[in-house]
Amino acid sequence: MHIDLSCACGQVTGRIENADPEKASLATCYCTDCQAFSEALGKADTALNDKGGTTIYQTLPSRLKLLSGRDQLKIMRVTEKQAYRWYAGCCDTPLVFTAPTPSVPILGVNVRNFREGAEAAYPPFAGALFKQEAWGEVDEKKASFPKLAFAALARAFGAKLRGEKGPHPLFGPNGEHPEPKLLTQEEREAVDRRLEARKTQAAA
């Protein structure tokens, strides 16, 4: 079983291989940093749900195969000590997040990049994270961050035991990656103002 994905314009494409529901986690994150990433790219209307949430499919990086568009990959950091948030420079589509180093085997994909039929490979929905930062009342159950973190660590440990580590699909052989764009304080403040306006509008 696999899941195909692409950016909005189709230049960046990839595939989640071995997409067994037992080998992934699914949750919606409402944190302001995930919101800021999409808003900074001008894609909040398409990448977020109506309450400001990003639904994330989390799996091992080794299960992602990049098929095209490597030259279009870019990285943003919305705060200095944050995950790498990868996007397609061709159309500014928010794609995935990873740790800042390939040695930490974590990969989270915005499910809005998946093509039709991906739901068949989804694991059970774990719930919502940071519900207090949503743009209004969220009906989804609260997800357990410790449980999600433990599941990610268990997948990584299991893959290591099975020899599944493999090369990271986004970083180069020696950890090379595009130079991350860190939002300046002024840029982040502008993004936060726009997000606050969206939250106010959603509550109206």
UniProtKB/TrEMBL annotation:
Compositionally biased residues, Basic and acidic residues: 176-186
Record-linked SUPFAM superfamilies: Mss4-like
Coiled-coil zones: none
Pfam family, one: DUF6151
Record InterPro entries: DUF6151, Mss4-like_sf
Record region (Disordered): 164-186
UniProt protein name: DUF6151 family protein
